[in-house]
Predict the 3D structure of the following.
Amino acid sequence: LYHMNGLSTAHAALAQHDSVVLLPRFTPASYIDAITRYRCTTISAVPPMMAMMLREHELLRRSDLSSVSEIRMGSAPVSAALHDSLRGVFPHARIDNVFGTTESGPITFGPHPQGLAPPFRSVGCAHPQVQLRLVDGDNVAANEGVLHIKCPALMNGYHKLPEATRKVITSDGYYITGDVFSRDAQGFYFFLGRIDDMFVCGGENIYPSEVEKMLERHPAIQQACVVPVADEIKGQKPSAFVVLKPGTAVGAQEIKDYALANAPPYQHPRWVWFLNEFPLAGTNKIDRKALMRLAEERTARDRR
């Protein structure tokens, strides 16, 4: 509850006289059981948690989830494959991809001022009381770059950490989120990934989430996680860890060929490894550092 998502959800529930179901820890089975037992109407999670839940086919089949009318996800991009799978399990629920930060509050985006319907994967347009800009190097008016936020809910600073505060608050009062977004001609924003996840392959910027969304369109892939592997010539090359959908089979070369056919050549993973599930960090997001270490171990072993 110390993150903004937990705090704002608790506040909203109190204001609306709702009940809140809290789990001591996340497991797919306990999550599904809580929805069924307490007839939850709104559920919230990061996308990897939803992907893990969707693998519980037998439990989902015998569970009544018809009470769910809204699904809220944030902290990571939502792929088309995940969205479609959730739609199959929750056919009547509204699926929202939301964004907020603990440093700048839960409200960043809102509806289009002229009522335009948001495109798929958009988190919305700038809220009227929030100032946003995308920064790409010296360009503070870019259409793709790191999101900066100025708003009434902006923190005063990190408690007793003035140096850390100076690193994320600009001289003109914007918070540097470290999240990379793009903005279309209608003013809709799209979350691309974290700037610290981005890596360079032969001079080309690679945002792992973009490659992962492409891979997850493959009919056999449930989840994908792309991490860099050091290379003497290219600097870094992409590798992919993959969790397959139950009952499917596909080889590493087929996945590489799929990537070459559906994305720029520099994005295709040079290595593909299969896992039964991904390791999760304390926030239930995919533990990319653990997968980077595993990729380094496997490529080092292959070079021997």
